[in-house]
Write a structure and sequence with these properties.
- The chain contains four helices and no strands.
- The protein has 104 residues and is an all-alpha fold.
Length: 104
Amino acid sequence: MNTLYLLLALLAVAGWIVSTMNQRMRALRDRADRLERRLGLVLDHLGIEEPEPAGLDEVRALMRDGRAVSAIKLYREITGAGLAEAKQAVESLDLKVQPSDLKV
């Protein structure tokens, strides 16, 4: 019977720890989002555009070849972006026509 109480107490403590960690992670994520928005406003105010990561020409080449999954994978490797962010970025890259892509 004592082991049952001990097990229940242990589960309760583990649940509390997990809950606390989730709250802290959410707070840190919210803070990082706020800082990114503020940085974006500062960059816009100063007229500074974020430079394009190196290697996006390879990503564009993969998209031109119809290899979207490989392009997303390469974009993630280059930038460290998550899957959803990489997919959105690669799709927006596909919509932009680069001067080097134009044939005269």
